[in-house]
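Open question from group meeting: does this chain pack into something compact, or does most of it stay loose? Before anyone orders reagents, we agreed to write out a predicted structure and look at it together. Recording both the input and the output here so the notebook holds the full record.
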Amino acid sequence: MTAPHIVEFLSDMPHQLQIGCDALALRLTATHAPINYASRRYVLPRTSAMMVKTYLSQTQLFLEPYGEVADADAVLAFSFGDAPSVNEDLYRVAQACVSTRPLLPLLMQQEIAAHGDIVDGATPMFSIQANEYQTTTDVAKAALGLTDKRKIVVVAQAWHAQRCIDTCEALGWQVVGLRCTSAFPENDPQPWVRHPLNWIIKESHREQAAGYEISERFQLI
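Structure tokens returned:
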């Protein structure tokens, strides 16, 4: 039987991810917010640990803000988890985008829109709602029907941002900028968004199973 591997996220600066005997430095130096994540460890089957290692070698873990809001025709905001903390941050980020351009349409996933008033004010604001869980693709597709604008600034959690941008562009949106926050909601009901290591494990296995299945399989805390 192949021995399991300890996969450990170390909070020393620069942050490191230890997979078995391999130490991988994660130089998380985002300028938009200080990053200080707690240490965490899991024991994974060797094949899963190698999937994590492959994911790290092929993926931009997080993005920093770029682009100008002045170049966009709308703002599209993606939530991160269900808990209020990060989604409140994302609401404030989204509001900052339209503070100097109040007529810019603001499209927000319902978990973000819940933290503001989408009725009053000059900004045309839309809540992207669904009774069931919404994937990133679901949100980007639904937003297409809310405006005829296609040049957007994406608002997203920094570690989620690359997938949000790739998804939008695959559907026909033109992403001209990004605004984000790098926080993780520690008490979120979705275990895979509570910590960077949880997110890395989930994303590296996302082609195999849904987030809840991965969380149960590896007992993400």
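Observations to bring back to the group:
The first strand starts at residue 5 and ends at 10.
The helical segments are 46-58, 84-98, 110-113, 136-144, 161-170, 196-204, 211-218.
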